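Sequence design from tokenized structure. All designs in this work follow the same two-part layout: the structure record, then the generated sequence. An example of the structure record is given first.
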């Protein structure tokens, strides 16, 4: 509230100063012809053009940095999760006192699961090719 009052009184003093200056010139019978002040402000169209151009540039930069950040963070999370998985697996194996049970008889995998796993391998190969092309 105090800042609003301060700004109000500063503007009031400025207005009084400008009117007082005009009154002094009227008392002295001096006529001053003033042309409009130009503060060097560019036209509205130029401002609009530059603003849109800069917004597009900053938008592109923002999109690129967001994608770059998401790719790097996903890679970081993937790497750290693999490390954590290995540590947990090692601790679980140690907790079993080094006894590993191997299952000698393997159950046959259903044809559906084989088909799904083949499809999954194909997708992984395609992803790997894309990552090689992109350099990720």
């Amino acid at each position: 509230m105090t800042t609003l009052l301060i700004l109000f009184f500063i503007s009031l003093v400025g207005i009084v100063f400008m009117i007082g200056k005009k009154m002094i010139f009227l008392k002295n019978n001096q006529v001053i012809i003033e042309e409009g002040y130009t503060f060097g402000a560019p036209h509205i169209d130029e401002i609009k053009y530059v603003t849109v151009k800069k917004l597009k540039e900053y938008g592109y930069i923002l999109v690129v940095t967001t994608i770059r950040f998401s790719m790097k963070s996903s890679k970081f999370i993937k790497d750290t999760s693999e490390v954590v998985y290995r540590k947990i697996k090692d601790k679980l194996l140690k907790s079993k006192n080094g006894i590993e049970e191997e299952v000698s008889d393997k159950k046959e995998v259903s044809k559906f699961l084989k088909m799904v796993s083949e499809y999954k391998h194909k997708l992984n190969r395609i992803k790997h090719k894309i990552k090689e092309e992109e350099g990720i």
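The chain has a mean pLDDT of 81. We note this feature because it recurs in several other targets discussed in the main text.
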